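@here heads up, posting the sequence + SMILES for the S-adenosylmethionine run so it's all in one place. Ping me if the SMILES looks off, I pulled it from an old spreadsheet.
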Amino acid sequence: MNLEDREQQLPPPTQGGSLHHHHPRRKNPYQKRLETTASKPRAYVILLLVLAFALGYLSHSHPLLSSTASDVLEHNSFPAPCAEPLPPSDVRRTILSRVFNNTSPWQSFPPLHARPLLLKEWTKGWGSQMPVFEHLIEQVRPRTIVEVGTFLGASATHMASIAKKLGLETQIVCIDDFRGWPGYYDEEKKSLKMVNGDSLLLYQFMQNVARANATENIIMMPFSAGTALGGLCDWGVYGDLVEVDAAHDFHSAWVDINHAFKVLRPGGVLFGHDYAWDGVRKAVHIFARLHGFQVKLDGEHWILY
Ligand SMILES: C[S@@+](CC[C@H](N)C(=O)[O-])C[C@H]1O[C@@H](n2cnc3c(N)ncnc32)[C@H](O)[C@@H]1O
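bot reply: prediction finished. Complex structure tokens:
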């Protein structure tokens, strides 16, 4: 029996009175039934959504959230190995080929539009000439140095001059996105010219390298740190010395140190600047603890032994 049939069975309302008044219990069941029938699909949908959410949460939460110490270690250990090491004599050629399509970035440098804008002399840096560089280059006598965070090349050109002085054939791979950091233009306004949103940091770095007579010993990787280190890892480019001096917040320092360690030649030395920064210090010590290194200090720099 459907609703209409039932309504037809009801006695007609008495004069002057309402159905509600005379049969107060008859109307309510129909109303209730109507409401229940209408709200059921909604209830099913809600139930289905809750079930889907619970299933999704349960199936994804397990692999993403670590419950044991070994899981935590695995999630924090950048484990895929890098390629077989290239001979140091192939490092520069490999980067010229993979990054610069086998052309020299110094050919016809600087380009005409940038020429009048570059400064002849401008090598701002931070602790870029500290004794740590000489100490480590004398100790390790590196064929390949990887520097993560180069800015205007102050530390890179300094390392190049030390290596030359020691008679070493050292290739320095400078990794930087050459974007500085948000707000850096405010600090460097007096020096930098802006061309269509670009502050010419890469060109000024190259100018400084040319001026230091180090174009044969320095080659840059103008990418973000993780991408560039990933490339070196894939090509088997390892550093005897690897220096980390890019962004100094904990997460950046942590990721940079882990990626940098992967391209450290066995027996090489990993070091970096700005131990005084909280984020850097934390990342260095967690990394040292996980990998069994000791942290030594040389001026503002940390060194892992
Ligand atoms: C402190 S400066 C490097 C100074 C240099 N080592 C010296 O002593 O002259 C930091 C540099 O890291 C670069 N940098 C920061 N985060 C980066 C990232 N994720 N990838 C690539 N470069 C980055 C910035 O562009 C900046 O040039």
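MO: The chain has two domains: 3-56, 86-304.
MO: One more: DSSP finds twelve helices and seven strands in the chain.
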